[in-house]
């Protein structure tokens, strides 16, 4: 009977049945917790974080883990090895996300960085923070970024 537990746990992880975020690189279920409200936070607390979790609103909401770069006081999400990541396309279609950073939960609007000069500046910042392998110089051309803006009026968190 005990030999089945690893298989059962893996099946639960792969089907997204585990709630309250991803389990490492494996996407997970929706977050639980209270959203922070009030004035725009000072994002310096996220500067040295290794990773954050985001909840995206696909047909079945799911959560993924990614890095975070704070540039000029604004948080950005890198999409390293972007040709291999599907979540970026969902976020382009539905930019409302929930961000969990250092245990704090924020509603944000993910804005893709399509300006090449700005993207390259963020790539350099990500390379300085993370280095090899995900932010290696050779992967700079395939690393994309999203700026995390406050939600727009009328945006509300989705269930």
Topology at a glance:
Layout (H helix, E strand, L loop, with lengths): L3 H11 L6 E3 L2 E4 L22 E5 L5 E5 L2 E3 L2 E6 L7 H7 L2 E6 L2 E9 L3 H15 L13 E6 L10
Overall description:
This protein has 159 residues and is of the alpha+beta class. It has helices at 4-14, 87-93, 116-130, and strands at 21-23, 26-29, 52-56, 62-66, 69-71, 74-79, 96-101, 104-112, 144-149. The protein has a seven-stranded antiparallel β-sheet with strand order 4-3-7-8-9-6-5, sandwiched between helices. It has a two-stranded antiparallel sheet with strand order 1-2. The longest helix has 15 residues, at 116-130. The termini are far apart. The mean pLDDT is 81.
Q: Let me know the number of strands.
A: 9
Helix residue percentage: 10-25%
Query: Largest beta sheet, briefly?
Result: 7 strands, antiparallel
Shape by Cα distribution: globular
Helix count equals: 3
Nearest-integer average pLDDT: 81
- Span of the ends, CA to CA: 37 Å
Residue fraction in strands: 25-35%
Unreliable parts: none
Structural class: alpha+beta
Helix-strand pattern: HEEEEEEHEEHE
Radius of gyration: 16 Å
Arrangement of strands in the largest sheet:
4-3-7-8-9-6-5
Keywords, please?
159 residues; alpha+beta; 7-stranded antiparallel β-sheet; two-stranded antiparallel sheet; globular
């Amino acid at each position: 009977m005990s030999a089945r537990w690893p298989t059962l746990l893996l099946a639960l992880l792969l089907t997204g049945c585990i709630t309250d975020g991803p389990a490492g690189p494996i996407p997970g279920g929706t977050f639980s917790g209270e959203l922070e409200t009030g004035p725009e936070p000072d994002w310096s607390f996220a500067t040295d974080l290794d990773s954050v979790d985001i909840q995206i609103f696909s047909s079945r909401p799911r959560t993924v883990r990614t890095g975070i770069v704070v540039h000029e006081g604004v948080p950005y999400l890198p999409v390293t090895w972007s040709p291999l990541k599907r979540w970026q396309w969902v976020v382009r279609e539905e930019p409302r996300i929930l961000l969990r950073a250092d245990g704090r939960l924020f509603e944000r609007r993910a804005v893709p960085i399509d300006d090449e000069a700005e993207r390259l500046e963020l790539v350099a910042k990500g390379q300085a923070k993370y280095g090899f392998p995900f932010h290696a110089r050779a992967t700079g051309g395939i690393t994309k970024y999203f700026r995390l803006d406050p939600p727009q009026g009328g945006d509300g968190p989705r269930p």
